[in-house]
Design goal:
Shape of chain A: globular
Oligomer: homodimer
Largest sheet of chain A: 10 strands, mixed
Strand content of chain A: 25-35%
Number of strands of chain A: 10
Helix content of chain A: 10-25%
Distance between the termini of chain A: 25 Å
Radius of gyration of chain A: 19 Å
Structural class of chain A: alpha+beta
Largest interface: A-B, 18 and 18 residues
Number of helices of chain A: 5
């Protein structure tokens, strides 16, 4: 009997060329499909909630696939841990209805972005945060970050080269806070354009460091012009935290 | 004019065969000596507060060396960051009196040990914590940990193969606490025997998981017999936090 299995997966993206399977570089999807084959007894074709770029991490990527394998659903997590490399962890597995589709049915996604804000680098944060030397005003950045809440045309924060999708997205919550040298952004939205979180963070950091005025953000958002926004923040600070379904 | 320079160094020990220079494997000391040569204009001979093992980390290793180089002391930190790999960071530099010796003059050292306590591994903690699956009782472990405070013969927690030194050490403070899935031990003492922190943690975890009785710890400590204590905890959870001088 065929089952539709939903997996929640955490991974350290440092060593992978993103999530999506590629011809000439190792992606997380390929590792999952090849290693989990043995657990289910047949080739797998995985659908993810979306791709993540090279160096981007996940605490809660969601994917689904169909299987005729006989392994009980409650044994999948532990079987997966026996075959996967240590930097990819299946944290939950459940059987879902036949129609469930990890990408199309996703209703909300949450991303986190971490900055290590200090004059000197922290050797333990190299792969896990963006090191920004200039002192950042997290209170001002929080005020700016909250301006993205609502439904907007985010064309100004969309990278060239992404798939042709509607630039209109709804952000349910967004904030920025500091704990000592670590600054953390959180964005929850209906969906995100290609590089959107990294472009938002790159732009907000330019304001938080004083290089741009606080009043510029609203104008950049309204311009729908990518050239008006700031640089793209690097991938290693970005984490896909969770994907929610109905 | 010759100066005696004291450096405080942070490093991610994952890729290095410990601190101490070795013939056939790359150690942190070798990287520092070779890369800093250019900053000072001559070969350096570094003395550290002590060695750390393969995979062990440091936030505050201290070392000293003599230089006839002309670089002003206040420019050393930034010059070092230009020549060192990203996983070794000089966080402070100061000129000290000629007699200062990073190992002999050390009065107190503080080590931290991190455990990630959860059924499933966390891909972001692989290199930075010991993953213990069994649920640990941090309150009981804190009670046991505090028993090491005072002056004791720590022979039961000394690895074979260390240098022949007195097994009697004074521990000024020691505790264990939990924040969600992370358990953290901190030990401050006059000095530590080879593998002493890792052997203490390995033994205390056996008690915290219920495999040994809480009353066994005092007996193990009093036995002075390494065979009575538990297994050595793995290196990646250990951090040399700071070294204090008078």
């Amino acid at each position: 009997m065929e089952r539709n299995i939903k997996l929640t997966v955490a991974y350290d993206g440092t060593k992978y060329h993103g999530f999506q399977r590629q011809a000439n570089a190792l992606a997380v999807q390929q590792v999952l499909e090849e290693r989990l084959k043995g657990v289910f007894g047949h080739a797998l074709s995985i659908t993810a909630s979306g791709r993540t770029d090279t160096g981007v991490h996940a605490y809660g990527q969601v994917l689904n696939f169909y299987t005729t394998g006989s392994i009980p659903t409650e044994r999948i997590v532990s079987a997966a841990s026996g075959v996967l490399p240590e930097d990819i962890v299946v944290v939950a597995a459940e059987e879902v209805n036949k129609g469930f589709h990890a990408r199309r049915d996703a209703k909300r996604k949450t991303y986190m972005y971490r900055i290590y804000n200090s004059r000197l680098p922290n050797p333990f944060e190299l792969r896990y945060a963006w090191h920004v030397r200039t002192e950042l005003d997290e209170s001002l950045m929080n005020t700016i970050t909250r301006q993205v809440v609502g439904t907007h045309d985010f064309s100004a924060f969309k990278a060239a080269g992404g798939p042709p999708v509607s630039p209109i997205k709804t952000i349910f919550s967004a904030n920025c806070s500091r704990q000592e040298k670590l600054i953390q952004f959180t964005f929850t939205g209906s969906g995100f354009l290609y590089h959107m979180v990294r472009n938002l963070v790159g732009t907000i950091v330019e304001i938080g460091s004083g290089r741009r005025g606080a009043d510029e953000f609203a104008r950049i958002l309204a311009s729908h012009d990518r050239r008006k926004a700031g640089a793209t923040a690097p991938p290693q600070g970005l984490y896909l935290m969770c994907v929610e379904y109905e």
